[in-house]
Amino acid sequence: MTNRFLRPISRLFGKGAPIVPIVRLQGVIASDTRPGRLNIAGVAPLLKRAFAIKSAPAVAIVVNSPGGSPVQSRLIAKRIRDLATEHNKPVLVFVEDAAASGGYFIATAGDEIIADPSSIVGSVGVIMAGFGFVEAIAKLGVERRVHTAGRNKSTLDPFLPEKAEDVDRIKTLELDIHQVFIDWVKTRRAGKLKAPDDTLFTGEFWSGVRGLDLGLVDSIGDLHQVLRDRFGAEVILKLIEPKRGMFALPNLGFSLANDAAAALEDRAVWARVGL
Question: Which residue has the higher pLDDT, 107 or 7?
């Protein structure tokens, strides 16, 4: 009799209901700490807190990123796997707008990848981009003077003519990084990929629906519905957010120029996947 009356009260306070921690990874992946950036320094504390919830039946990670630094992508993905192994917890990754390039690298750290049907997934490739201003400075009558110790120190200087040997070195570097990406995806998606390498690893990206056909994701769905289906209607979704200092001061404007530059850079990266 007593238990019957206590049960609704327990539900009210979440007692007895499974708790699934959620870590949202959103933004361009880069080592710097400007707003909207993802890196291991910012993500590691959130992951540690999420996996530390002993009663959680799983950890949910929401990925919404067009990519960025291959190093930071690998570090974040590896930290997810290390913690999953240490705490013996399954990881469910949910793709929102995009898990492309480095974003997909991180997504494959999940034991399952669940994507929105209209999301963007894939883009398993490497890109390095820049500008050349040689003709522009010539028209302005500007002379570029460069003095180096080491004949390759001025590789891809935007104010000097592009050299074939520089391009060859960059291509070799890109191929090395690309192979690291390919090897990781093949390991994490072993037995699940449904297309040849020359389809999957060209840098192309697809919708979530097409990604399911290719074996890049495991199913189509959204976080709330999937977690309710898996763990019951009473499941508690606990968002793990960055801690803010009590006396943290707001941005007073002295970094507005840097923030604006970061926003433009981020916009360019998102534009590569049409978002």
Answer: 107
- The pTM for the full model equals 0.81
Q: Is 118 exposed, middle or buried (0-12, 13-18, 19+ CB in 10 A)?
A: exposed
Nearest in space to 115 (alpha carbons), one of 130, 104, 129:
104
Count Cβ atoms below 10 Å from residue 18 Cβ, excluding itself. Answer: 17
Query: For residues 97 and 23, is the Cβ–Cβ distance under 8 A?
Result: no
- Condensed to tens digits (0 to 9), the pLDDT of residues 93-106 reads 999 999 999 999 99
Tokens matching residue 172: 């070799």
Give the strand pairing for 112-115 and 219-220.
Answer: parallel
Supply 246's token pair: 């009590």
* Amino acid of residue 41: A
For the chain, how many residues are written? 275
CATH architecture of 2-124+193-271: Alpha-Beta Complex (3.90)
Other beta carbons less than 10 A from residue 73's beta carbon: 27
User: Which residues lie closer than 8 Å to 103 by C-beta, 6 or more apart?
Assistant: 29, 63, 64, 65, 66, 67, 73
Please name the residue ranges forming H helices in 96-242: 102-107, 134-139, 164-188, 197-200, 208-214, 223-231
Angle at 26 between CA 23 and CA 28, to 5 degrees: 140
Give the residue, 8 or 184, on which the prediction is more confident: 184
Question: Which residues on neighbouring strands pair with residue 94, listed in sequence order?
Answer: 62, 114
> What share of the chain in percent tops pLDDT 70?
74
For the chain, give every domain's residue range: 2-124+193-271
**Residue 54, token pair as written in the block:** 């002993």
17-29: per-residue pLDDT in tens? 999 999 999 999 9
